[in-house]
Structures are given as C-alpha cells and as structure tokens.
Specification:
Blueprint (H helix, E strand, L loop, with lengths): L4 E5 L7 E4 L4 H6 L2 E10 L4 E5 L4 E9 L1 E5 L2 E5 L3 E6 L4 E5 L5 E9 L3 H9 L5 E3 L6 H13 L5 H24 L7 H13 L6 H7 L4 H12 L3 H19 L4 H7 L5 H12 L3 H9 L2
Antiparallel strand pairs: 1-4, 2-3, 3-10, 4-9, 5-8, 5-10, 6-7, 6-9, 8-11
Helix pairs in contact: 2-4, 3-4, 8-11
Length: about 290
C-alpha cells in the first residue's frame, strides 16, 4: 500500500470535538465502523491535506465557508452542503480566507462503505447541496455520544447509524440529479412492456421508437429512474422468472432457458451464475434441500 501522508493546521476552537475510536476485530471484519468523528469550529489557517488513507470522509458544513480541492477541482463549501470522498485520493480542505468554518464530520470504513461510496461517486461531484431539514447532520452528530458512552452495543448502533447515513446520502444525491421525483410516463410504459414481453427477442431500438424517444435518451432516463440499463433490467426479469421455475417446476434447465427467452442454454447458465453466485442446477439443488 502507498505510504500515508498528511499535513495539517489544527486551528479549531477549544470546544471543538474530535473523537478517535479503536474498532474491534469483529467490527473490522463485518461492519461499517467509525474511525474518527467530530464537530469543529475552525478559522484560518485551518487545513488538512492528505492521501493514501484507507477511509471514507463525510463533512457537513453548518455555517461559514470552506474549500475542498479533490480530483483536480476546487469546491466551495457553504451552509448545508457536504462532501463525501475517498481518502486514498489526494485531498486538501481548508477554511476560506477571512471567514470561519463550522462543520460536522466522520471518517468511516469497512462493511458496505466501498459500495456506498461507489454509488455516490457515479454523480461525478463530491459536493452535495442539501435542504436545511436534511437528517444527515443529525446522523453524523449522533455518532459522537454513541462512542463517548461506550457499551456492548456501541459498534452495532454505530453501524446502524452509518447505514442510515449512507443510504440517506445516496437518496439525496439521486433526488438532486433527477429533474423530478416522478418517473416519466414512457419509462413506466417501458417497464410494463418489458415485464409483459421479457421472453421475446426484445430490442431496445424498436422499443424506444414505440415510445417516441431516442434510444440514447431512453437508455439514460431508464437507468436514472430504474437504477439499471434496459438490457440489464430485461436480464433481471428473466433471472427472476428462472428462479421461480427452478424452485417450483421440474422443467429441465434447457427448457427454462428457452421459456424465458435464451436461445443458448450455456449463455443462460453463465448469466445466472454471474448474478446469483451459483449455477441453475446448484440453485435448484440448494433450494430443494431447505
């Protein structure tokens, strides 16, 4: 692993809070866990510059203004904005000149943290502007007393809060990137059509034309609202039906592949294993042994 480096000026007030934890072996192996958390009131020349730290960092600006340099870009951090970054990458964040910067923050790692970060990073911008009533600030702040008053349940409660925090963050990012919360009617129509015709040789070009949109626009909007491409959704529908037939019928693997729209049984077996982690035969055998 590359060597961790950090430079910093700790220009924060005496009543600022910085909490450092020591996660158990069990937490490190199975849970999302807090590495550090805190609440800072800073003034110039406060800054932190680091890289190659195995950690994800979430910083929520409460008041004042900060600056973040990350991924070759500079971002202004104002009230009710946050940033979420991978600390393996180079980062530099600081209090803006002639201002203060009040913020809550948490370093966390482990469990599903990498998956949550990758979902968030798809938007291409580490900064997110939130509504003032966002629960994210409360979630971050709640992590501090949980660790200050340690019990046998501390790590489980922290993992629960981190999961809620990360989930709310992803949902907030998705809402920001959507023109509205309402799915366009043609996407709902496409979903119904695919659910009805999943076993056919359904091609996306004719489907998009039937909905009076371009294939590019259709594919982009479908993924934004459904969370996967049209082709991946079609495969998803076929795999779900295959699991039903494997569980509740005695049809052969080849017959099931043909019924759900696969001409090539080997292709079906490979796709099923890639998504379910075992072959159709092994899935059926495991299900019947329960």
């Amino acid at each position: 692993m590359p060597q961790y480096t950090e430079n910093a000026s700790h220009s924060w007030t005496p009543d600022s809070v910085r909490l450092i934890t020591s996660p158990s072996v069990a937490a490190r192996s199975a849970l999302m866990y807090v590495q550090e958390a805190g609440y800072f009131w800073t003034h110039p020349p406060y800054f932190t510059e680091r890289q190659h730290l195995p950690s994800y960092l979430l910083v929520y600006t409460v008041s004042g203004e900060g600056r973040l340099e990350y991924g070759g870009q500079t971002y202004s951090l104002t009230a009710d904005s946050l940033f979420f970054i991978d600390c393996m990458e180079h980062q530099h964040y600081r209090t803006a000149e002639q201002d203060h910067w009040e913020f809550a923050w948490v370093h966390f790692y482990g469990g599903a943290s990498k998956h949550y970060y990758e979902l968030y990073a798809q938007q291409g911008d580490p900064r997110l502007q939130l509504q003032p009533q966002s629960p994210l600030l409360d979630h971050i702040q709640a992590l501090i007393p949980i660790h200050e008053n340690k019990t046998i349940h501390t790590e489980l409660l922290a993992a629960k809060l981190l999961t809620e925090l990360a989930t709310e963050l992803i949902l907030s990012a998705h809402v920001r990137n959507s023109d509205s919360d309402t799915m366009p009617a043609y996407i709902a129509d496409a979903v119904r059509e695919m659910e009805r015709r999943y076993s056919e040789r359904l091609r996306m070009d004719p489907l998009a034309r039937s909905l009076a949109v371009s294939k590019y626009h259709f594919t982009r909007e479908f993924k934004k609202h459904i969370g996967m491409s049209p082709n991946d959704y079609l495969i998803y529908l076929r795999i779900v039906k295959a699991k039903e037939l494997l569980q509740y019928t005695t049809q052969s693997i080849a017959a099931i592949a043909d019924e759900i729209g696969f001409d090539n049984v080997s292709h079906f077996i490979n796709l099923f294993k890639a998504r379910e982690g075992l072959t159709p035969f092994a899935f059926r055998k495991k299900w019947r042994s329960l």
